[in-house]
Each structure stands twice: as structure tokens, then as C-alpha cells.
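Table S2 (text version). Query chain:
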Amino acid sequence: MAIILYGNRLSPFVEKVHRGLMLKQIPFQQHEPHGPFDLRRNNPTTGKMPALDLDGQRLFDSTLILRALDEFKPEPPLLSPDPPIAAQQRLLEDWADESLYWYGMVLRWNIPANTTRTIKLICKDLPPVVRPLIKLMAPRFVASQTRAQGLGRLPLNVLLQELDRHLANLVQLLGDGPFFFSTSQPSIADLAVFGQLGFLYSPVTPEGTAAVEKYSELLEFCQRLDAMTD
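Corresponding C-alpha cell output:
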């Protein structure tokens, strides 16, 4: 039975699932999309990355996929057996996916120089026939999404101040433990935060890289998780 992950690791949600598969040592193949139509073909439910073929099912949404992986291969678990800690892990994962993610999106798509770099990065592995469509459609579409979400309406200095506060809060939550909530084993929360920090810490978003580099604790956290899932 082939397990196939559909998506590009430039997406923090694909990276989250990729690291989960590696953590559980589940062999898999990765198929990258060759254009926007592949997204709908690979994931007809939502048309987004990632999707996963697992045990004869086509799964979607990174949270739902990792939940299914925990059932497919329970060890190592992605949630603590302690219900209060597991609840905190689920909440942090959801916050990383639904809130922290948008800081990276604004930095990529609402700053012209970063948008140019982002499009170049996205297009380099796409067929030449698709690139003009991406260059034309993506900036306008994604920037409108960030404004509708709210963060895209903030002045850049305010956005970066808020991002800094969130990163400082993550350091407090991490504490002295190797992973969040003083656990020795990465959880679904760690995978989600790792994916979003990597999304911020990118050559296309120097502002995000500078923000993360202020916190050595977060860089060391990423190094630990990377070593366990490389």
C-alpha cells in the first residue's frame, strides 16, 4: 500500500504533515502539484494542500491527516495521554494554524518586494505555461484574503509588534522543556508551530526571519525537532 503525500513543502501545513510522517517513521511518497488545477485534482474536497492517500482513503486538512496518522500508527503518539496537556496541545496547534499562519501570509503577499520573491520561489518548479497565471492571479487573490482576515489591514510596524508579542509568548509556553508543555516527545502542537516558524523564517520574508532570530529558544526548538524528523 503506497502512502502518498500531495503538496509542496513550501506550505507550512504540508511541512507539518511531512514532519509527522517522519516522526512516526512511516514510509511515504511525495507528489508536488504542477499547477493550481492539481490542487483540486489531488484534493477535490477543499482544493488545498496537503492531501494524503492513507489506507485506501484520500484525506485532507493537516489536522485531520495527523489525527488519522495517530490511529494508523499510534507510536509515537502526537497527543499526551494526560487530558489537560492534550487539550493545550490541540489549542496551540489550532492557534498556530489559524492565527500565526496569517503573519507569514501578510509578510509574503502585502509587501511588494517579498511578493516578488515569493512568486519567484513558487514558480521555479512550475511548468512555464502556468507561471504567467500565478504571477497575475496570486498576489491580488492572496492579499485580499489577508485583508479579509484582518492582519492584512495593519500597518507593518504594528503587525511586527504583534508578531513579536506572539513569539515571546511561545517562548514562555516552551519554558525549559525541549518541546511545548514540558513534554519530552513532540506533539501535534510542536509540528504545527515548527511549520509556521519555518514559514516565517524564510529568505522571501526578511522581516519574519529577523523576528524569529530574536528568540534563540525558538531556533533551538526548531533544531531539536528537525533533528528528530529529518
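Notes on Table S2: The longest strand covers residues 51-54. Residues 4-72 form a domain with the Glutaredoxin fold (CATH 3.40.30.10).
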